[in-house]
Every structure is written in C-alpha cells, then in structure tokens.
Design brief:
It is a single chain. By secondary structure, this protein is α/β, with parallel strands linked by helices. The chain folds into 3 domains: 3-49, no CATH class; 56-159 and 168-365, Alkaline Phosphatase, subunit A, CATH 3.40.720.10; 370-486, no CATH class. It contains 13 helices and 16 strands. The chain has helices at 3-31, 81-88, 103-112, 135-141, 163-172, 190-202, 244-273, 301-304, 330-339, 353-356, 417-427, 433-436, 470-486, and strands at residues 34-39, 45-49, 56-62, 91-93, 96-97, 145-150, 183-184, 209-214, 280-286, 308-311, 320-322, 326-327, 367-370, 389-392, 396-400, 448-452. The chain has an 8-stranded mixed sheet with strand order 7-6-8-3-9-10-4-11, with helices on both faces. Strands 13-14-15-16 form a 4-stranded antiparallel sheet, with helices on one face. Strand 6, helix 5 and strand 7 (183-184) form a beta-alpha-beta unit. Helix 6 runs parallel beside helix 7 (244-273).
C-alpha cells in the first residue's frame, strides 16, 4: 500500500471516531459556544472555540542567499516582485544572521532554537540527536498538522553515506524526522511546489498547518540563464574585484534568486486560491550566506548575513523595517510565540515578535557563529575543514581562526573559472592591492581578525592589533571566549592563560 493511500485510510478512520465523539459530547459543545471539535492523533477530543485563531505557518528557506540580494534590500539588479511585495505587506530585517555559514549547522539552529555547539551539530554529515526537541514537534503536539518538503533538509545525515555510517544510523535509530512531522518529502525546483500542494491537500480541515518549504536556489551550480540580468549592467560590490568572469558568475547567482521568487509567487497564489493567504504567517530567509567571494563557508558578512522577510496581517503593519539583531536560533522561538505555543526549556533563542509589531527592542548585544567541517571529505583545506569562530555586533566583528595554517579554499566554487582567474591575477600582481591583501589569497590566515563594520562594511581592512580598537577588540574576544566556555566548545579558547613562571 502506498504511503498516501495509508494516510487517507487513517484519516477516514479518524473521521469516523470524530463523529462518534461528536454525538456523545454535542450538548457540551453547544453550551460552550464551540464552533468545531478537534480529534488529535491520540484520539483526544480538543475544543476549538471562536477565539482560537491560530495562524497557519509557512517557513520558506532559500539555499545560499545573502543580503543584499533581494529588491527590497535596495538592490536594483534583482527582479524579485513576490518577495518584495511580501516585505512591503509585512516586515524585513536589516540585521539577520545565521549561526553558521553552512546549511547543516545553520538549519540545526533554525529548527531547534539553539546554537550549533549546544545541539552538537558541528559535523556536516551529523544527524540531529533524537532527544533534541524541534519546534515543529511542539507545534504538532499543540494541534498543528506539520510538514517538511523540498530540497534536502540536512538534519538526518547526508544523502551519500559510507556503509559503516548506514549501519550505525540503523543500529541506533538516528534517522528521526519521519517521526517528528506528519509529512516529509524531498524534491527540487518545480517539485517543491507540487509537494506544497500535496501537503495542503492532506491538511485536516480542523487543524492549522505548519510547513517548512526548502528551495535549492540559489545553490550552485547556477542553472537559470533565462532569469539572469545582463552581466555588463549589474553592480559589482565594492568588496569584489570587477572582472568579466566575476560579473558573469554574479549575474548567474542573481538569476537563481529571480527564479526562486517566481516559485514563491506560485505558492502565494496557491494560498490565495485556498483562502489561506491572510491567515498564514509567512517567514522567508536564506539558510546561510551566498556561495560568492568571501561568502558561504566564511564568517564574513556574505557568509552569515541573510534576508529575513515576514508577513502576517493583524500582527505586522505593512512596510515595517526592523534594525534589531536577529540570530537564526530566534526563528523557532518567534514561530512558537506567534502560534501561542510554549517553547522547550532548552531553547535559547529569543522571539522577535515584538519587532514585527514595530517595537525596536534589541534581543542581543552580541551574536556568535561557528564554522565546522563541510561535506564529507577528509581535511585538506579550509573548504573541507575549518573551525573558525566569530563574535560580532552591528559595529565590529572579531574572528578567531585556530586552523590559520590551513590554506583557504572557497566552498562550492574552488574549481570554477571565476576563482581560478582571480588566483592567477593575484599571482601575477594584477589585482588591486586592497584585494590582494585579503586573506583568501594569502598562504595563511592570521589567528585573529577584527573589522570596523561601520567604516569598513566590506571587511577589507583588518584592524586587529590597532591600538585605536584595543578595548572593542578585547570586549568581543572576551565575549567569544566566555560563550565557548558556556557551550563546551572543543576548540582551544582564544585567550591563553598567563605563562607559567
């Protein structure tokens, strides 16, 4: 029997039990002004009153997507009318950052409301521990019909495994997400929207829904030429060398974001068709930074700074813009807050619901992020293996590179013609000096880096050791040191003890 046939059979069985229960308790229902009863998965009758207006929730993640690559962030090269409209009808955040510049680590924080160290998800191919609670589970227990669809969600281990890994996973029951949500499916590009419709068709009439939809755009390889702008007409950021190949690569990245905007527009239309659009809390964000120069895999701005847009009429005033610091670990707490569901006591993120309501109150004085192994290759360069850490706020960023001696390799495009040309230009002394000095071209990185983000937003001038920044530098280093102690980081601490006499 196919999975969907079994699901429909179970659903029909529940309806029979539902009507039997309804006949028994109907006098009580009318006496209490109840509009409809709910039978949960344990056949427990719950009462849904007129005041029960819990929203549906749709979390949408793009893959490898940083600020400012949406039109609403002031980027004139983008054609993203659907996400821009979502922002215009709701809110967008100027300072949202993920807890890691990689998908597995970052997504673990998003779904658990905890940082990467806290949930022990440093290894790229690790499954999330079955004892760690995720926010979709809490929504499910509160009566939501829950689902995950689209691109691989990355939290049940990698798709490609050694047989020894498969054996261990099976022996210890380490693949868990089929037990955490009601609906689980995977697919790419057009298949994501097919799965969204399939999920919506399965939602019981008496339940609100939560769906986490994952798109693979703009992950490399770039495959959306029909959506690309003219490379000659786009603006190259100040932090990148302006070459023809870099323009071509950047235009291809933009094309993928324009394409995912089209897919998201189709989902919005589907919600409207079903009459669910205005009763659905929609959150869109990038899962981590872009696979561009000094982006994904690094702890610079392009590796962590992501678009975050939300819409929910009645809660969010159209045209709201927030400047508070937001961490990826805050998403879970915010969704639970909007749904009226208590978070798990282990969750450490902070709800930013107040910011969506227009109250600009900071949740964080500092944010922290980590870099871990990427992919499943043995360590040979910084693309495969790195353990850098960062502490930052809106003004400064401190980076700690304990593996400073590993040669830098970009994640996902080390063999690309754009990168190879830049390496050659650097070797020939043809790159502008400001680019030749940045640490992606040097043989080694320094152990410590420090940047003045207000005066140097592209992080081109390392201020570590500059006496003018001594106090600010020590403050962020000390905060990172403290945070690594609290969460039992395996990496040596950044501040060494005094030498023995």
């Amino acid at each position: 029997m196919k999975a969907f046939e079994l699901f429909n059979l179970l659903k029909a069985t529940k309806k029979i039990k539902f009507f039997l229960n309804l006949l028994i308790i109907s006098p009580c229902l009318f006496a209490q002004n109840v509009t409809s009863p709910i039978v949960n998965d344990n056949n427990v009758m719950l009462l849904k009153t007129d005041q029960d207006n819990r929203p549906n929730i749709l979390l949408i993640l793009s893959d490898d997507h940083c600020v400012p690559y949406l039109g609403c962030y002031g980027n004139a090269d983008m054609h993203t009318p659907n996400l821009d409209k979502l922002a215009a009808e709701g809110v967008y955040f100027n300072h949202a950052y993920t807890t890691a510049p990689q998908c597995v680590l970052s997504r673990a924080s998003i779904v658990t409301g905890r940082n990467v160290l806290d949930v022990q998800m440093l290894r790229f191919s690790a499954p999330l521990d079955k004892n760690i609670i995720t926010f979709p589970e809490l929504l499910g227990k509160a009566g939501y019909f829950t689902g995950i669809c689209g691109r691989r969600y990355h939290l049940d281990g990698s798709g490609r495994k050694a047989q020894e890994t498969i054996d261990a996973f099976e022996e210890f029951g380490m693949v868990t997400f089929q037990n955490r949500v009601d609906y689980l499916n995977m697919g790419y590009r057009e298949k994501v929207n097919i799965q969204v419709k399939e999920f919506l068709d399965l939602v019981p009439e008496d339940k609100p829904f939560f769906l986490w939809a994952n798109y693979d755009d703009p992950h490399r390889a770039f495959t959306a030429p029909e959506f690309e702008p003219d490379p000659k007409k786009i603006t190259v950021p100040e932090g990148m060398p302006d070459t023809d190949l870099l323009r071509k690569d950047l235009a291809a990245h933009i094309g993928e974001i324009n394409r995912v905007d089209k897919y998201i527009g189709e989902v919005i239309e589907e919600l409207k068709r079903r009459g669910e659009y205005d009763n659905t809390f929609i959150i869109f964000m990038g899962d981590n930074g872009a696979a561009l120069l000094r982006g994904k895999g690094t702890l610079y701005d392009y590796g962590l700074h992501v678009p975050l847009v939300a819409r929910y009429p009645g809660l969010i005033k159209p045209g709201t813009v927030s400047d508070i610091l937001v961490s990826g670990s805050d998403v879970a707490l915010t969704i639970l807050d909007v749904a009226g569901v208590e978070p798990d006591e282990e969750m450490t993120g902070k709800s930013f619901k107040h910011a969506m309501e227009g109250i600009e109150r900071e949740n964080h004085k500092y944010l922290f992020a980590v870099r871990g192994p990427h992919g499943q290759e043995l360590p040979g360069n910084s693309a495969d293996f790195d353990l850098s850490r960062t502490a930052f706020n809106k003004q400064y960023r401190f980076i700690y590179n304990p593996l400073f001696h590993l040669p830098f390799h970009p994640v996902d495009f080390a063999g690309g013609e754009m990168w190879e040309e830049l390496v050659q230009l650097h070797a020939e002394g043809k790159l502008d000096e400001k680019f030749s000095k940045i640490y992606i071209f040097t043989e080694e990185r320094p152990m410590y880096e420090f940047y003045d983000l207000r005066n140097d937003p592209h992080e081109l001038v390392d201020r570590y050791g500059d006496p003018a920044y001594k106090e600010a530098q020590h403050e962020l280093m000390a905060q990172l040191h403290r945070w690594m102690i609290i969460y039992r980081d395996v990496v040596p601490l950044p501040i060494a003890p005094p030498r023995r006499q």
